[in-house]
Amino acid sequence: MIKILEYDQLDSTNDEAKRLVRAAKIHGTAEQNEGDAVNRLYGSVITARRQNAGRGRMGKSFFSPGGDSIYASFILPLPERPAEQLITAAAAVAVCEALENTTAYKPGIKWVNDIIVGGKKVCGILAETIPEAVILGIGVNINIEDGGLPEELQGIAGSLRMNEKEKDDFFSALAEKVPYYVSSEKTVGSSCDADKRADKRDGSFCPASDISSVINAYRKRSVIIGKSILVVQGDKKRPAAALGIADDGALIVKYEDGSTENLRAGEISVMDAAVT
């Protein structure tokens, strides 16, 4: 059973998730059952109607005005070999499938964590690992009026349109699919029997299949493969071509000098026409 903790307002749902894990660890240590206390949080979803200090990758702020938008953070078991880009890739596939299954939208993915609809970013994903868990934050813009976004986001960010039932169905699908795809078993590439895929009491969720299926689903929805991009790493910016997605979720790029690189960190912007 997925546990949903709802708040009217938070600084950040990811930060609240971390606080809950820390509190569980302290309480569990006092009761000499630290592992059980933290395990009981696995699978929990923290939501807020608005955030005062929402953030994305690279320390950037995430505009969180409230209204019908969704701001949610999942507390999930920590993989044996955590890789941010792989966790984020699995989460991006989960968001896309939830949208495809409950709405008419056909979303795409811009590496590494942006969900694109109509050429604009409508959802961001932030995966953070702490010693006890993965904290996976997902922010989805819903029913933000024209002109409701800050000037610096105009033309870059967009908003989905949903009625109340569509939003409820989408969130229910999201709450099911994120743990289904983002799990300790899946991120290390193992699989399990179909009859064991239901969520377990300890919060360790069984994957849909092996890791290759997630990466293939991610590649299928990529909106940047074959496009000209600008790779931004610190103060350095380099034009490149996006060649593909590696098996670990890294972006394979080719620079103008002919060299290639598998990007696992940094930012990119698309130099071609708007992604769709």
Structural commentary:
The chain is α+β, with helices and mostly antiparallel strands and 276 residues long. It folds into 2 domains: 4-219, Bira Bifunctional Protein, Domain 2 (BirA Bifunctional Protein, domain 2, 2-Layer Sandwich); 224-270, SH3 type barrels, CATH 2.30.30. The chain has 6 helices and 12 strands. Strands 1-2-3-7-6-5-4 form a 7-stranded mixed beta sheet, sandwiched between helices. Strands 11-10-9-8-12 form a 5-stranded antiparallel beta sheet. Strand 10 (251-255) and strand 11 form a beta hairpin. Helix 3 (84-102) runs antiparallel to helix 4 (164-181) and helix 3 packs across helix 6 (211-221). The longest helix is centred in the middle third of the chain and has 19 residues, at 84-102. The two termini are 36 Å apart. Residues 184-209 have low confidence and may be disordered.
Shape estimate? globular
Low-confidence stretches: 184-209
Secondary-structure element string: EHHEEHEEEEHHHEEEEE
User: How are the strands ordered across the major sheet?
Assistant: 1-2-3-7-6-5-4
The helix fraction, in percent, is 25-40%
Strand runs, count: 12
The helix-and-strand class reads alpha+beta
The CATH level-2 architecture of the largest domain is identified as 2-Layer Sandwich
How many whole angstroms does the radius of gyration measure? 18 Å
Main CATH class of the largest domain:
Alpha Beta
Query: Termini separation (Å)?
Result: 36 Å
Strand content: 25-35%
Number of structural domains: 2
Question: Helical element count?
Answer: 6
Question: Which sheet architecture does the biggest sheet show?
Answer: 7 strands, mixed
CATH topology of the largest domain, which one?
A: BirA Bifunctional Protein, domain 2
| Chain-averaged pLDDT | 83
